[in-house]
Amino acid sequence: MAKLLVVFRREYLExxxxxxxxxxxxxGPVFFLLVAGAPRLxxxxxxxxxDVAHIDVIDATGMGLGERVVAGLRERFPLSRAxxxxxVDRAGAAVAQDRALLRVEREEVLGYLLLDSATVKGDSxxxxxxxxxxxxxxxxxxxxxxxxxxxxxxxxDGIDPKRVAAFARFPLEMHTQxxxxxxxxxxxxLGLIFLGYAVALLLxxxxxxxxxxxxxxxxEEKTTRVAEVVVSSVNTDILLAGKILGVGLVAIxxxxxxxxxxxxxxxxxxxxxxxxxxxxxxxxxxxxxPGAGGSPGLGLLAVGLPPVPLWATVALFLCFVLGFIxxxxxxxxxxxxxxxxxxxxxxxxxxxxxxxxxxxxxxxIMANPGSAMARTMSMLPTSAPIIxxxxxxxxxxxxxxxxxxxxxxxxxxxxxxxxSGRIYRVGLLMYGKKxxxxxxxxxxxxxx
Length: 448
Known about the structure:
By secondary structure, this protein is mainly alpha-helical. The chain has 20 helices and 6 strands.
């Protein structure tokens, strides 16, 4: 135990006293503030391309729909250059498209919109332009066309044009409220979404950063032959455990420091950085308006972190600790297997793929945290440390699923520690070529 404490103390103090650790700890909350509020500070809510209405509108409907769409574009985007209207019959639509395509290629217009019989039926409308990949632009144009088609249909059925305008601009604000086992949740919904994403991403970052730190430390000790001196007085299992626990405590220290400093920055510094926007978001949140000014990050800045139950906090902590031990032991085994920086990057690829696969599914799981895919990913030991915290902060998760996920990760930790300990025991003193899979199997089989 005394030797374990010596290794643990060395690994922890060596990293905590580093100027890079101090610098990263202090800059973390600043980065959080910028990510959360800078988009709103710089340009407000994204409105798409400023010149989105400067397009060619080709009307092949024969019903005057193009004029209505042009008027809608001018009204919706008054600061944009006016659109061009070309009225053609069905036979001339192809020629008009070719001309519009040339105008787009010459950058005379941003794109062109084709209105035809399918548009009148409400089936489809075609848009081609330089901003075709901009969801904001495309959604705005589609919304204008849809409202004008609806208005034209209503007028055709004899409804008063003034009432048509009122119906076509039908405002509907959706207020959402999460319900858990105790009834209505009074927390900030968008704040919880932001918190869930931040927690999952933070866990991923810390596992990657400090897991690779252990891998590089093992490789450095091996290549510099320091390991030969160390293992003469310290058992390899104790050395591996000390490294994982020491570096793991460093990661926990930095995370806790970030949380404390971020809360202080949100409470005392956000209003000076983002001014009236944060104040307005705080008022909106206090009034019960979901959205807090239209930005989950800004709402979080305004009101602080949403309330998280004690059991959820404990579950988040256990997910981080167990997930870190699982991946750190694998990274340590990778560091003991290879002999150079070039080899270590290739050897660590399978471990990194396990981590990256969890991050890839974060977006779909945030969109539907109660889906079968979300439940499956939150139960797999390789992805549970990241996906389960994400689900806990988004939806009520049955306690049996949380316990099952933690038990699965704990079992995976035991297996990875046993496996990595045997590879570490042999590989730390092995030099030369990179071992094959067969040699690794022999290491695991005959290690004592």
